[in-house]
UniProtKB/TrEMBL annotation:
<keyword id="KW-0479">Metal-binding</keyword>
<dbReference type="GO" id="GO:0005634">
    <property type="term" value="C:nucleus"/>
</dbReference>
<dbReference type="GO" id="GO:0003682">
    <property type="term" value="F:chromatin binding"/>
</dbReference>
<dbReference type="InterPro" id="IPR041983">
    <property type="entry name" value="ADA2-like_ZZ"/>
</dbReference>
<dbReference type="GO" id="GO:0008270">
    <property type="term" value="F:zinc ion binding"/>
</dbReference>
<dbReference type="InterPro" id="IPR000433">
    <property type="entry name" value="Znf_ZZ"/>
</dbReference>
<keyword id="KW-0862">Zinc</keyword>
<feature type="domain" description="ZZ-type">
    <location>
        <begin position="4"/>
        <end position="59"/>
    </location>
</feature>
<dbReference type="GO" id="GO:0070461">
    <property type="term" value="C:SAGA-type complex"/>
</dbReference>
<dbReference type="Pfam" id="PF25299">
    <property type="entry name" value="ZZ_ADA2"/>
</dbReference>
<protein>
    <submittedName>
        <fullName>Transcriptional adapter 2-beta</fullName>
    </submittedName>
</protein>
<keyword id="KW-0863">Zinc-finger</keyword>
<dbReference type="GO" id="GO:0006338">
    <property type="term" value="P:chromatin remodeling"/>
</dbReference>
<dbReference type="GO" id="GO:0003713">
    <property type="term" value="F:transcription coactivator activity"/>
</dbReference>
<dbReference type="GO" id="GO:0006357">
    <property type="term" value="P:regulation of transcription by RNA polymerase II"/>
</dbReference>
Amino acid sequence: MADLGKKYCVNCLADVTNLRLRCTDCPDIELCPECFSAGAEIGNHRRWHGYQQVDGGRFSLWGPEAEGGWTSREEQSLLDAIEQYGFGNWVHRCLTYFFYL
């Protein structure tokens, strides 16, 4: 029997409580990173659908061995800054962006 409060990948049944990718087109599709990367398709769900990362931004991108590593929320902030200001001019633009987060 499944533990209450735990989430599982609908494709492989792996525990995805800490990190999962939710389809924005299919209400009940949540995948583990491995099944998402493999392009899993289930029922009417297709790999080209939109996705939302669900982890609260606490998932460490580099694993527990990376002390002081970036969380996924910090990585998304960096990507947003690059998209908004371009790659470069870190001293002024990017520091200003992170200061006001």
